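Message: Just now I want nothing more than another pair of eyes on a protein record. I am handing you a single protein, as its sequence and its fold in token form. As I understand it, each token names a local backbone shape. Take your time, and here it is.
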Amino acid sequence: MGQLWTEAHKFQTWLDVEIAVCEAQAELGYIPAEAVETIRSKAKFDPDRIAQIEAEVRHDMIAFLTNVNEYVGDAGRYIHLGLTSSDVLDTALSLQMNSSLELILGLVENLIQTLRYQAQQHRHTLMAGRTHGIQAEPITFGFKLAGWLAEMMRHRERLVNLGKMITVGKISGAVGTYANVDPRVEALACKKLGLKPDCASTQIISRDRHCEFIQVFALLGATLERFAVEIRNLQRTDVLEVEEFFAPGQKGSSAMPHKRNPVRSERLTGMARMLRGYATTALENVALWHERDISHSAPERVMLPDCCILSHFMLTEMIDLIQNLQVYPANMERNLFCYGGVVFSQQVLLALVNKGMSRDQSYRLVQQYAHQAWNNPIGNFRALIEADPQIQQHLNPTEIAHCFDPQVHLKHLDEIYQRLGI
């Protein structure tokens, strides 16, 4: 990914655009065909020389064209004919963004398959579901991962649609009116580059497209952060249901030898914050003066490479993290049944209501015993339920046992898996 955003690759995409335009102009008879042959065979650039020229002229495109013409000679007068800088800059930028998107899509597909495999492996691995950070009712770890899988599948769809949005070029001249370049040149050049012409550009491609690009990446980062935060919470010492892989020889703290910290998940959380920050900047880049200004240019030179490289790194990290995640089913089961299975309180409540007890009376009775057992080292919710005379009048031992059967909560799990094709 980093290679796509180097100065050398940027200049190469500029040259690719210039040559495609020259070829289109030759096909339409605007410039000699032999000039294009010369341009194709001789056109080169030297990033150091471009930097040297730019230090004098203070214009990157002029510096680039000056350097290319040093190699091409007289035929160079046909390069950039009728164009403005943004014709090349924005069309080339679309090529860079599209290439980056292809790499990101490949990693997203890899993460989808990793989550699909792990969701299947842990389809029946019981654990406590939690809301507000508090244990709620039983789920499986596979069910949790199935939710992650569904979210990544939505990201795949967004990224595919994003490709349609950003795969555009612009060869329409100053202020976009085609005053000095035939619209057919744009159509031919874009086709050669694998792009489609922007339907109504100004001097630039409007920045709503680039904003959407950044926002989709920021949303992807938010999802990866959601996964990372969940892993961090489940790795807490008092929970310890999953844990990042801790390599032989790895050290968690310079002071405390026992430490095994979720450093990769924490790193991902921090990077997601950066992506969100760029989303704000991208929104502000949409409103430019008249047909263009360059207030968008400086931030894009930082945020587009950063967003692509950060997202690529975050996906690579998350794939490896999920593939090597340490899962502790015994700890999950221990936590699920703590305090005598208070997470089964709703099943007891419903069973009593179904046997004729009022909901309010049932709720008060069940809550009394749940709170009595809660956070009590010797608290046992099930034992309290089984010993209560009122409950005994409504529920027999088999019915009470059924209330504490976690499989009751998983009876529709297969339907969810079927929707995801697992």
Remarks:
- Residues 85-121 form the longest helix (37 residues).
- The mean pLDDT is 96.
- The chain has 18 helices and six strands.
